[in-house]
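Email to the structure team, subject: DNA primase model.

Hi all, the expression group asked for a predicted structure before they design truncation constructs. Nothing fancy, just the tokens so they can compare against earlier work. One-line instruction: predict DNA primase, return tokens.
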Amino acid sequence: MAGYKNYKSDEKSSEDKALDLFAEMMIERIETISKDWSKPWFTKGSLRWPKNLSGREYNGMNALMLLMHCEKNGYTIPRFCTFDGIQRLNQPNGKQKSSDNQPRVSVNKGERSFPVMLTTFTCIHKDTKEKIKYDDYKNLSEDEKKMYNVYPRVQVFRVFNVAQTNLQEARPELWAKLEEENSLGITEEGDKMTFEPIDVMIRDNLWICPIKTQYQDHAYFSISKNEIVVPEKKQFKDGESFYGTVFHEMTHSTGIEGQLDRIKPTAFGSKEYAREELVAELGSALVAQRYGMSKVLKEDSCAYLKSWLYELKESPQFIKTTLFDVKKATSMITQKVEKIAEELEKEKKEQQDNKQGVKVEQPVSNAKIFYSSVAYLQSSDDTSRLDEFRDKGNYEGLLRTAKEYYDGNGINEQYTFSSPIRNKGDDLLVEDKDFAVVYNNSVGGTYEVMLKYSEQEIRNHIKRYGTRQASDDIKEVAKDMVNEEFAKMVKQRVPAIELPSGDTLYFAYNRENDSLDFGTTCNAGLTVSHSFPYDHDSSLDMNVQVANEKLNEMKDYQAQDVAYSYGMRR
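Reply from the structure team: attached below.
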């Protein structure tokens, strides 16, 4: 690439090499767009948000780069997995079961992986220098934690797109499901696209500052007035242009003091101003892509292209710091948008139920709430702002700052619990209807930011992703769900199977052992002769089917040889 510095070096870390690649991709994209301002950052409606094969979304930097990676290579399904993740599809305890008549899932020959970056923690004992897993460290007592040094570091993982594997041939049903999930639907209102959550946000003044639509020719965010002003929707060539402009100015508005504290007083046209424009451009492009829209380069931002390219070519680290700000800004925007969308969907359902005469159950006031850890901050992290708010007793400010650490990912099933208080010394400092912050005065003081979910949301997550990596609290909910489903099955039919030998075995779900038990019935109930662990990654019917197949293979239940039995009677 002309003018691009050669960063290749054997001494570079995997993180530096990944940043070199990211910078090169961004340079290529910006240079392409600079030749045609009407070219969008991402092709219209081409891709949904990138996720791993388990359905977990990638955030900020990784999301942007994976989207660009998909566009460059023509991948139509933005789902990725590590080499180990692909191998797990072939294991008996994997989410997708492998059997003798199923081919193995594998990476296609010659395919190259792509880097994603995650923050991990190394825990080393101060005396023995023994390393332990971060999960194990979190379960230690307060005194035991003091014996360890904890070092955060960015770790690079290599992933493959599903198109780089033989998944389509080896697991056609899973492939079809992924294709269906990636389909995008756009609502049109005449010749203009409409996105109701943003329309409602503007109408009801639900953003962190007013968004005013006026018949004029400029779009801007005023720091002094703390307000966004954009032309009316009818002045734009299409709905996507309107919403893309709104997203751009919303990204700017997240940076003021008291929010993300990103924007500093600076002269128009300066280096800092150019960087803020890039944050707004990328933030707008990512939010637009998340909701199935395209976003072209804002004309006012074109003047900063040269500055962006210079910074990227001189220092690939520029993309890391910039995208960290993009991640926090887009997280604020998408949280609000999706909250409004959720409330709109709930209102529509209630209206539909009322029209059909369906009795709508009122939410239970003491409905069970679950807490999912989204950030764990300790002495090795910069917690000075949180400490300052805590020392002053300003818990509202502390909660607002803590929310910045949420990256927009879904339920972290491994660290989701029925109570925010789990360890000795935990103190629930503050919570609202969505978030909670727990403080523990150990190892210099730790903060855990937790996102709250209803039991129904947990149940929906279990239905979609199973419980392979879930906490014990989530697994308890899964057991309740099977219990309820089995009760419905009993009402519809006698829970029994007939085997090739002519024997009939009855079965029941054993919640205590989390198993399907098979046997004969008597006055005392079921006399169990066979028991199979219940697989919550599969349906009840599938669990029964798998157990049935295993029983069919048992010698005691094989069909008798008819000719041989006649011969014995002679």
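The radius of gyration is 28 Å. The chain has four domains: 46-181, 188-339, 364-480, 493-557. Ping us if the truncation boundaries need rechecking.
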